[in-house]
C-alpha cells in the first residue's frame, strides 16, 4: 500500500485540499513553494498508462480547479503542473498523481533536459510511429 493510499484512507494525516469520487488532493509535505498541492487519483493506478481516459480527465479537471485556487490564494508569478511516470520519468511514489506547483521568479526550482533538435524530416518519422486515435 502506497503512502497515497494511506492518506486517502485516512490512515495518515494530511492537509486535504479537495476530494471527489475519483480524486484526492492534499498539500505536499515537501512544499517547494507555499501552495504546492499533490493531486492523486483515488484508485491505486501506478502511472498515467494505467488510468482510463475518464480518470485522466477527472484528474486534470481537479488540477485545473486547484490551480485556479492556488493562483487566487498565493498569487504566484507562474504555475507548473508536473506529472511523472516510472522512476526513469522521475516518479517517486508508484501511484498516479500530479503536482500543482506555484512558481516565483528566482525560486530555485529547475527542470531541464538536453534538447536534441532533430530536423523536420526526423520529427515526421517519429510522428509516423505513433498511432493516436481521435
TrEMBL record:
Domain HIT: 3-110
Catalytic site: 97 (tele-amp-histidine intermediate)
GO biological process: nucleotide metabolic process
Chain ranges for the short sequence motif Histidine triad motif as given in the UniProt record: 95-99
Entry-linked InterPro entries: Histidine_triad_CS, Histidine_triad_HIT, HIT-like, HIT-like_sf
GO MF terms, alphabetically ordered: catalytic activity
UniProt name for this protein: HIT family protein
Amino acid at each position: 500500500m502506497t503512502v497515497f493510499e494511506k492518506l486517502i484512507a485516512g490512515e495518515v494525516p494530511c492537509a486535504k485540499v479537495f476530494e471527489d469520487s475519483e480524486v484526492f488532493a492534499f498539500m505536499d509535505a515537501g512544499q517547494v513553494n507555499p501552495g504546492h498541492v499533490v493531486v492523486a487519483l483515488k484508485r491505486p493506478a501506478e502511472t498515467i498508462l494505467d488510468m482510463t481516459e475518464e480518470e485522466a480527465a477527472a484528474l486534470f479537471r481537479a488540477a485545473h480547479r486547484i490551480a485556479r485556487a492556488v493562483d487566487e490564494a498565493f498569487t504566484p508569478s507562474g504555475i507548473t503542473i508536473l506529472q511523472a511516470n516510472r522512476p526513469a520519468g522521475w516518479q517517486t511514489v508508484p501511484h498516479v498523481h500530479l503536482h500543482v506547483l506555484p512558481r516565483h521568479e528566482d525560486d530555485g526550482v529547475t527542470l531541464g533536459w538536453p534538447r536534441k533538435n532533430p530536423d523536420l524530416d526526423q520529427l515526421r518519422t517519429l510522428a509516423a510511429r505513433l498511432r493516436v486515435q481521435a
